[in-house]
């Protein structure tokens, strides 16, 4: 069990899609979880399938979806950081770093989870990943929390090698599936496919469960 786990991502659904099983596994072990979500993803292109959101209603819908997903994953402390979607790359880097430093000081995590800087594709992802690294790097080495990062850019394994943290999350697969399902505006098409598998034969059901049963992360080295 971790003393406290701090998860830092820019968008609703990042927590679920990138590290849902990791979060659920730590929560199931009794670790307190704080998730700092920096935007409401209001500039996202997906509006549901069939569409049920529009540009005006999307932020409120995505916040509700996020809260439901966090409930399924076991996130007890959700922090909405109040930034605008697709603008984080233009924010003062030290402002972002300072906010994350403040969270670390407040919750005193033994583990921090974010994206791997340089290998997470989206400018918002990169801004938060770099800010998180800066915040932890400012701490004395002996009191730094462990930083584990999710990388998913094409070819990242050629540079970073295989993940050094590989987790079997089969025990919490259903919690992760329900969190994915909660983000309905973003995941409806994918979940419809998964549900067909879950209601299929044993082979199809096993394949569906395996989608939520294994996660790999990199331990960031300072």
Q: How does this model look, in words?
A:
- With about 220 residues, the chain is of the alpha/beta class.
- The chain has one domain: Rossmann fold.
- About 45% of the residues lie in helices and about 15% in strands.
- It is built from 8 helices and 7 strands, in the order E-H-E-H-E-H-E-H-E-H-E-H-H-H-E.
- The protein has a 7-stranded mixed sheet with strand order 3-2-1-4-5-7-6, sandwiched between helices.
- This is Bacillithiol biosynthesis deacetylase BshB2.
- InterPro entries: BshB2 (IPR023841), GlcNAc_PI_deacetylase-related (IPR003737), LmbE-like_dom_sf (IPR024078).
- It comes from Alicyclobacillus fastidiosus.
- Pfam families: PIG-L (PF02585).
Summarize this structure briefly.
The mean pLDDT is 97. The protein has 8 helices and 7 strands; from the N terminus they run βαβαβαβαβαβαααβ.
């Amino acid at each position: 069990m971790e003393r406290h786990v701090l998860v830092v991502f820019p968008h609703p659904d990042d927590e679920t899609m990138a590290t849902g099983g990791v979060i659920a596994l730590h929560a199931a072990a009794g670790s307190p979880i704080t998730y700092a979500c920096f935007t409401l993803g209001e500039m996202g292109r997906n509006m549901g399938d069939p569409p049920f959101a529009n540009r005006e209603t999307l932020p409120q819908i995505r916040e509700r979806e996020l809260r439901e997903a966090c409930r399924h994953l076991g996130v007890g402390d959700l922090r909405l950081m109040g930034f605008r979607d697709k603008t984080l790359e233009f924010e003062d880097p030290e402002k972002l770093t300072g906010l994350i430093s403040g969270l670390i000081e407040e919750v005193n995590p033994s583990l921090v989870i974010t994206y791997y800087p340089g290998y997470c594709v989206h400018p918002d992802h990169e801004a938060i990943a770099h800010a998180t690294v800066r915040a932890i790097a400012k701490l004395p080495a002996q009191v730094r929390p462990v930083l584990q990062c999710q990388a998913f850019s094409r070819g990242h394994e050629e540079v970073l090698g295989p993940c050094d943290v590989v987790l079997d999350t089969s025990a919490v697969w259903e919690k992760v599936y329900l969190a994915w399902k909660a983000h309905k505006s973003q995941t409806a098409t994918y979940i419809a496919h998964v549900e067909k598998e879950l209601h299929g034969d044993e082979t199809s059901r096993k394949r569906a469960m395996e989608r939520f049963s294994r996660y790999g992360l990199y331990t960031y080295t300072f």
